[in-house]
Amino acid sequence: MFKKDPVFVTKICVIIIICAIIFSFVGSAFGARANAQTAPATGQSDGIIPGSENIPRVSLGDFFTRMIETTGIFSFIMDKIDRQSTEYDEVTGGYKTTTVYGWQTLLMIFVGFGLIYLAVGKKFEPLILIPIGFGTIFANIPFAGMAEAGGFLDIIYNAGIGNTFFPLLVFMGVGAMTDFGPLIANPKTAILGAAAQFGIFGALFFVSLSNFIPGIDFNILEACAIAIIGGADGPTAIYIAQTLADHLLATIAIAAYTYMALVPIIQPPIMRLLTTKAERKIRMKQLREVSQKEKMLFPLMVFGLSVFLLPSAAPLVGAFMLGNFLRECKVADRLSDTAQNAMINIVSILLSLGIGSRMTPERFLNPSSLIIIGMGLIAFMIGTASGVLIAKFMNLFLKDKINPLIGSAGVSAVPMAARVSNKVGLEEDPGNFLLMHAMGPNVAGVIGSAIAAGVMIAVYGG
Fold first, then answer.
1. How many C-beta atoms lie closer than 10 Å to residue 168's C-beta?
2. Burial 83-97 (b: 16+ CB within 10 A, else e)
3. Beta bridge partners of 81
4. Cα(389)–Cα(403) distance, integer angstroms
5. 3-state DSSP: the chain helix, strand, coil percent, rounded to 5?
6. Threshold 0.70, pTM exceeds
7. DSSP class of residue 145?
């Protein structure tokens, strides 16, 4: 009979398990009640576990009531907790408190699953969004305390994000994966990387304007942290957000990585709108071969300039150039391999989980978050357009023309932005390969966004 009806066997097993759980609960409840009721004044009696004499008496009704009240379903329906929000109170000099309801934490759990879906189903930055999604779910599980003081996520956050340690390690890994050869071979493309940073400072202006919207009140530190999204550089965005406006970290990080993932969707329409068909067909000369000595001297030179001219950017630039020097010196291959593989992978998991720990209702479910996401998109669009337009302007004076499409690669999304430039170019001319040319402004954009972050920290960080 069992072989003919496996469903019946499954039903019997489920019933047995349910009965066992019920008898276990009832037995525990009656045992606790008997213990408490038979305890004499001396606190000593047969049947009482030593050390349990002062434990409050629990009735069977209390037992089941507590069981119900500690379920996630009850919390999502009934919870109402006051938490510190991201709104600054000028009177008290601290952040206001906001009431968080249980349904809001449930909504944030769905946001976490949404991020996982985007990462797996749509291939949007899966290495980052998957752990951020899980971190968001972990942080909003009722009674788990994973994001509270001493919790799993809180330890991760304080170990590497609260002190900006993880972003610097990520920058080191990115440096170890970066080839500066195209930039060294064609130095004028660095101008395009700098031009894309107009997106950051343009966003700073628009964030300031958003303060005229009722209910929105960003200070200059928050505005700087939001504007850096325009650089499309996740580690830099995290670094400056933690330095200047840590309460906005989660939203800024999500916006930065989301727009990095959306580069193939956002950039091509802007590139086609601002260029003619003839401009998109411009073929650039093959890049010269760059010597090993040049590749070794370049990171040392850039790091030295940051030390003397903009020390506030030296941590980011220095970590980036350290990773690159390990790659190019050819005597530390094991360190280079570790930086660009094992280390960056481990740190990316921890960094993303730490970001997810800040994805809670009081930080994310407010009008300011919508403004941040909107300003990030504006900044990204301005950065893309600026790079294209500056390339067109440079062509007015250059004998060897630059294909304006590579100007869009000035944003720091390495190497995706360069691939998009190449893809749009190939659509117009299947024989026009722009990838290596676009890598010049692309890596210059990484340096440019780090410098922009250093400028903001130098001016307002104090």
1. 20
2. eebbbbeeeeeeeee
3. 100
4. 11
5. 70, 5, 25
6. yes
7. -
Contact 297, 321 (CB under 8 A): no
CA distances from 265 to 257, 262, 269, 272 (A): 14, 5, 8, 12
Rounded Cα distance between 337 and 415, Å, is 19
Q: Encoding tokens for residue 106? A: 């449930």
**Beta-bridge mates of residue 426:** none
Count other C-beta atoms under 10 Å from residue 301's C-beta.
12
Do the beta carbons of residue 320 and residue 450 sit within 8 Å?
yes
DSSP 57-122: P--HHHHHHHHHHTSHHHHHHH-EEEEEEEEEETTTTEEEEEEEEHHHHHHHHHHHHHHHHHHHHS
* pLDDT tens sequence across 58-116: 677 777 788 888 888 888 898 888 776 656 565 566 667 788 899 999 999 999 999 99
Q: At 86, which amino acid appears? A: T
Rounded CA separation 17/7 (Å)? 15
Q: How many CA atoms lie within 13 A of 22 on its CB side?
A: 6
Output the CA angle 93-98-101, nearest 5 degrees. 165
Q: pLDDT tens across 306-341, in order?
A: 999 999 999 999 999 999 999 999 999 999 999 999
Helices 126-139 and 344-356 pack at an angle, to 10 degrees, of 40
Sequence letter at residue 70: T
DSSP secondary structure, 420-449, as one string: HHHHHHHHH-TT---HHHHHHHHHHHHHHH
Tell me which residue has tokens 């407010």.
366
Tokens describing residue 191:
């101008």
Q: Which residues contact 258 (CB under 8 A, 6 or more apart)?
A: 118, 124, 125, 373, 376
Q: What radius of gyration, in Å, describes the C-alpha atoms of the chain?
A: 28
Quick one: CA torsion of 40, 44, 49, 55, rounded to 10 degrees? 50
Give the list of residues 6+ apart from residue 362 with CB closer than 8 angstroms, or none: 83, 84, 85, 86, 98, 100
Contact between 174 and 323 (Cβ < 8 Å):
yes
Residue 349 clears pLDDT 50, i.e. is over it: yes
Q: Comparing C-alpha atoms, which of 18, 17, 47 is closest to residue 34?
A: 47
